[in-house]
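Spend some time on the protein that follows and explain the fold to me:
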Amino acid sequence: METTGATPGLRIGALSKRAGVSEHVLRAWETRYGLLAPARSPGGFRLYSEADLRRVQRMRAYLAEGLSAAEAARAVLAESRRLRPTADRAADPGSVATLQQALDNLDERAAHDVLDQLFSSLTIEAVIRDVLMPYLHELGDRWACGVVSVGQEHFASNLIRSRLAGMAAGWGTGHGPWALLACPTGELHDIALLSFGLVLRRAGWRVTFLGPDSPAADIEHVARIVEPDLVILSAVDPGRFEAIRSDLARLAGDRQVAIAGPGASADLAAAVGASYVATDPVTAAENWADR
């Protein structure tokens, strides 16, 4: 069964020797197709797991059967999703509590240590869905109740966002379906959208990420250039979508559009001809990838 392995441990040179694939090719498979999910050592080195090794081995098997690299990568990643064990879907509650304590205390090193452990023992999907998203929702509630300060909320959100963004290098390369991701003008919360893109990328998609505060005209302009298979817009504030209702309808008339986040609704999606994303970003991305 597909697991992430208890410890990452392998530097890329060791992975190359065990898998019989050159370091150059391994890096290409990681950046183009999201095939590998390395953790980071305290010194910043990429460390690969036994699951990474198994995915490389399966990749080689598919290539030997005559599949293209892009097709092989999609097949391997689809296997990983199907075979992911139930145990991988839950994080140690102690780790979650430790992460919260580190972030509340503005302890960057401790927070990264906890995240290193989580990413080395769970899949990226599990960490996002079962740890980061619930933590961020709770963080918002605690901020609203005055339990944490604006500074603490910004520190935690920025650290998590930077950690996820660091996994997004090269995600516009490859040969898979293409997604364009953006937040409308004025919307600054893009961690869920970033998470959606990471999961899509690991399923073999290519991603163009515009991020927060993207004017509708710019989104349409980029869509005409890259011709994406999916445009997904996310907002926390319903007013961000209402302000571009006509733009959404025009965009949805030309291509597949989905709206997500607390600011989205099924009624608005139906009114503009878009799809409505009602689930968490990990589940939503997995559902799109399986279509």
